[in-house]
């Protein structure tokens, strides 16, 4: 598949590109070459800077410093429209479609085919959409509402939208995350087709097998720096993992040696359906001891967050049982579960973790107001004292606890969410991607807090897609894929390759048989 | 809940703070300005008699606006309060005139206290229906309460075929002759309805500031999902706010029926709009999570004083409507400015801490 470099001229390159966001450097002096007529794969952990780099190329973000060179000329894209005029198309990981409009209307949005610039030529749009769908080997009605399509089909529409713009450079950010194995095959055929016609493709994915299969060139990013870039020749999974993780370890807290207590929590045969007739979580069982940190590793959509939602009681449509300290958990709803000693730190701080317009104090105590209440009367004095105490213990940097929580940085906001959970005196702490969107220093502090809490006898279940994080923080690791547990490892027996392999089970396009792995944890 | 209830060390004094204070007190400043203006422009404006009449007018809107504030803070809206006022007035009138007739040739009669309890139960029940539609059946608050607006109004019309229940003097035999006292009586020279407003207002402010229930109302309006994940029982909170709004509307229905000694089924038409206006004028955010009972009551007074004062000056009713509209829009524009200044002050203080 790999051809000599001369066959693939460099179409676009970034030179000394640096992108700084408030409080964090997303890209540091990167030099990236995008080759035409080839698939350039891009890999790295969450937050490594892949998406930022693609946003720069697609005109969503602009470089803080550095140059963007297209066909030998320095360019600057002011908007996605600007980039699109230069032949750059992007399919975002989060779909940008209008669910209330038809497939054809979505594909030609803001580029409608018109008669005399006024009347939309629906027949022509429909016809062109049909042609695109034929090319993508999908039988999607141009008049169907996008909202009625499955996620996989929506992704096809998104790809068709880029194709309709005759993009010379096409960026695909995790295009297969919602596709079935058969759909992935079709997508790969389309990619081959595009490659043959000279289109330069950037392909971002976490699925190593896919990358190795489809890629011609590979670029690995870590913490905003390119750690490896070469042609795909001789590249295998251990090579990728090595460059993704690197040798220098992040500043993780030293482990506090302590013994585990008795079993504090157990899940038995938990199964939760999804909206499309499948399952988010399939027959998951595990147990957790006091003082233990259990890491759940897996890709996005593996069912990890959904599992936590079942445990905290936000979802009620699951089957299966939970036990806290040996007693069956009968309480329905979040309030009841919190009362039984379970607390959740949600993945999305902004939408699920905090009430943005309330103050820091009000956010912190939201789950534990009863502790300050006699009858109906709430003691604001004791509330303020407790808040001050937690701000000190968690080293939250605040000017005043009365300010809106939205004035804090991401790391400090996360500490507020953790304080809120801890104020309920939980026995089991569920943390969904606790380090997402916070800088390295704040991460280290959050991890130190986790270690300390475990040493104090709390049972912690934490979900992450960061390999290094899960390896160094967990006492035990469970890997989930496609809603199932596909691997369980003790701290000393876990290897990066084994984790990555387990997390891809049920995803590899080549496997046609049902990839069942019933080594459920016990 | 924007101001601080506990003073914290480290509050940085800055250039924005004086401006912020001025913006926060804007409704109160507006009230003072309006009162000053009319005391000069309209003779007799500051006479005791006029003040008593005016505050009686204001109280009616203030009751509804207090209930409305909780609803809006929780992220909803209640369009049905005006109709609940009408319906509750008719229920009071019916009970005073006919009692309840179970169909055995005799009827059950009630005294004033019992009548009030039954009427309040009706108002609370309509509020519960609103909450049921919104939480269990997932109807948008605007639509759900628009529906109950029509249902309650239609029921009020049906109860008398659109006629007025006249002469609600009550009957000393049944102990219902004291009904008139609610609207006409006074204690220590202050009308009963004002005393009721003081009690309800203080109660509501207490709920808002010093009880978990109040905090939960703000949290639900600020971010329903996060509140739910924090263990707030969102459905219960919504039931409370709509039932409380129905309770406030029932009180207004009773007071009006008592003041007029009659109940007309069209009473309370468009009252909900005045209540929303008072809440917004007092700093309540229509997107939920922000607003205060005190602000709402001041807002109700601004609207009430403005319309009564303009009447005394002889300004045409058409102009009054235009002026009311301008005042409301201006209030929201200033509110936006306050939010910007407030965010800036908080960010500055945070930045002053250093990274």
From TrEMBL, chain A:
Q: Which CDD domains match?
A: ABC_Carb_Monos_I, ABC_Carb_Monos_II
GO MF annotation: an example: ATP binding
* Domain called ABC transporter: residue spans: 12-248, 265-507
Under the cellular component aspect of Gene Ontology, which terms does the record hold?
A: plasma membrane
Q: Which SMART domains match?
A: AAA
Where is coiled-coil annotated? Answer: none
UniProt KW Hydrolase keyword: no
Membrane topology term: Peripheral membrane protein
The subcellular location is: Cell membrane
Q: What is its main location?
A: membrane
Provide this UniProt record's keywords sorted from A to Z. ATP-binding, Cell membrane, Membrane, Nucleotide-binding, Repeat, Sugar transport, Translocase, Transport
Alphabetized PROSITE patterns for the sequence: ABC_TRANSPORTER_1, ABC_TRANSPORTER_2
Disordered, as annotated region: 500-522
Q: Among its keywords, does the record have Transmembrane helix?
A: no
Which protein are we looking at?
Sugar ABC transporter ATP-binding protein
Organism field:
Paracoccus alkanivorans
């Amino acid at each position: 598949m790999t051809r000599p470099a001369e066959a693939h001229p460099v179409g676009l390159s970034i030179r000394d590109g640096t992108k700084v966001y408030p409080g964090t450097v997303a890209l540091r002096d990167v030099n990236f070459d995008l080759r035409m007529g080839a698939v350039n794969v891009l890999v790295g952990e969450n937050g490594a800077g892949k998406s930022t780099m693609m946003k720069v190329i697609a005109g969503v973000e602009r470089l803080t410093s550095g140059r963007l060179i297209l066909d030998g000329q320095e360019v600057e894209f002011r908007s996605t429209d600007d980039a699109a005029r230069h032949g750059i198309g992007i399919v975002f990981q989060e779909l940008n479609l209008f669910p209330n409009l038809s497939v054809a209307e979505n594909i030609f949005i803001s580029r409608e085919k018109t008669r005399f610039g006024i009347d939309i030529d629906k027949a022509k749009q429909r016809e062109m959409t049909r042609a695109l769908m034929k090319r993508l080997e999908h039988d999607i009605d141009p008049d169907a509402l996008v909202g009625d399509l499955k996620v996989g089909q929506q992704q096809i529409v998104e790809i068709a939208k880029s194709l309709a713009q005759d993009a010379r450079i096409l960026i695909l950010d995790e295009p297969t995350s919602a596709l079935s194995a058969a759909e992935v095959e079709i997508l790969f055929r389309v990619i081959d087709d595009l490659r043959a016609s000279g289109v330069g493709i950037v392909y971002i994915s976490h699925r190593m097998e896919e990358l190795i299969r489809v890629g011609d060139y590979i670029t690995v990013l870590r913490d905003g720096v390119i750690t490896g870039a070469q042609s795909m020749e001789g590249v295998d999974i251990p090579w990728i993992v090595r460059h993704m993780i690197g040798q220098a370890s992040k500043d993780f807290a030293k482990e506090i040696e302590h013994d585990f207590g008795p079993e504090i929590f157990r899940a038995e045969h938990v199964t939760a359906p999804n909206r499309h007739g499948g399952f988010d979580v399939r027959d998951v069982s595990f147990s957790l001891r006091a003082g233990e940190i259990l890491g759940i590793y897996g890709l996005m959509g593996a069912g990890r967050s959904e599992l936590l939602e079942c445990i905290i009681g936000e979802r009620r449509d699951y089957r299966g049982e939970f036990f806290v300290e040996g007693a069956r958990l009968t309480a329905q709803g979040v309030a009841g579960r919190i009362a039984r000693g379970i607390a959740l730190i949600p993945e999305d701080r902004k939408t699920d973790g905090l009430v943005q317009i309330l103050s820091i104090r009000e956010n912190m105590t939201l789950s534990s107001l009863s502790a300050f209440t006699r009858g109906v009367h709430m003691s604001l004095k004791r509330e303020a004292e407790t808040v001050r105490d937690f701000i000190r213990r968690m080293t939250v940097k605040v000017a005043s606890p009365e300010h809106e929580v939205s004035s804090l940085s991401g790391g400090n906001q996360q500490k507020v969410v953790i304080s809120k959970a801890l104020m309920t005196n939980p026995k089991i702490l569920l943390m969904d991607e606790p380090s997402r969107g916070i800088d390295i220093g704040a991460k280290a502090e959050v991890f130190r807090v986790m270690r300390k809490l475990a040493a104090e006898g709390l049972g912690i279940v934490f979900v992450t897609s960061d390999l290094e994080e899960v390896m160094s923080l967990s006492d035990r690791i469970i890997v989930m894929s496609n809603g199932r547990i596909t691997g369980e490892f003790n701290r000393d027996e876990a290897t990066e390759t084994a984790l990555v392999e387990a997390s891809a089970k049920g995803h590899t396009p080549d496997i046609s048989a049902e990839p069942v792995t019933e080594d459920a944890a016990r | 809940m924007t101001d601080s209830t506990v003073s914290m060390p480290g509050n940085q004094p800055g250039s924005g703070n004086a401006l912020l204070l001025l913006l926060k007190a804007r409704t109160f400043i507006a009230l003072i300005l309006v009162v000053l203006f009319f005391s000069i422009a309209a003779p007799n404006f500051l006479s005791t008699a006029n003040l008593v009449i005016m505050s009686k007018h204001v109280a009616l809107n203030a009751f509804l606006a207090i209930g409305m504030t909780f609803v809006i803070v929780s992220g909803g809206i209640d369009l049905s309060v005006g109709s609940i006022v009408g319906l509750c007035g008719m229920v009071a009138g019916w009970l005073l005139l006919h009692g309840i007739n179970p169909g055995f040739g005799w009827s059950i009669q009630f005294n004033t206290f019992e009548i009030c309890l039954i009427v309040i139960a009706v108002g609370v029940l309509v509020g519960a229906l609103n909450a049921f539609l919104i939480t269990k059946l997932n109807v948008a608050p605007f639509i759900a309460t628009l529906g109950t607006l029509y249902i309650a109004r239609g029921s009020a019309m049906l109860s008398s075929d659109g006629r007025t229940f006249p002469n609600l003097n009550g009957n000393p035999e049944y102990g219902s002759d004291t009904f008139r006292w609610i609207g006409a009586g006074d204690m220590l020279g202050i009308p009963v309805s004002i005393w009721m407003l003081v009690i309800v207002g203080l109660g509501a402010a207490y709920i808002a500031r010093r009880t978990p229930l109040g905090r939960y109302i703000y949290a639900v309006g600020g971010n329903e999902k996060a509140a739910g994940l924090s263990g707030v029982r969102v459905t219960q909170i919504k039931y409370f706010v709509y039932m409380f709004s129905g309770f406030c509307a029932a009180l207004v229905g009773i007071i009006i029926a008592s003041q007029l000694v009659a109940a007309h089924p069209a009473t309370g038409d468009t009252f909900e709009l005045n209540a929303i206006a008072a809440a917004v004028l007092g700093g309540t955010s229509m997107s939920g999570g922000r607003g205060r009972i005190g602000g709402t009551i001041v807002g109700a007074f601004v609207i009430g004083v403005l319309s009564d004062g303009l009447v005394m000056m002889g300004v045409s009713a058409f102009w009054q409507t235009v002026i009311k509209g301008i005042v409301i829009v201006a209030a929201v524009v200033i509110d936006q400015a306050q939010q910007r200044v407030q965010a800036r002050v908080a960010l500055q203080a945070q930045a002053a801490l250093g990274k």
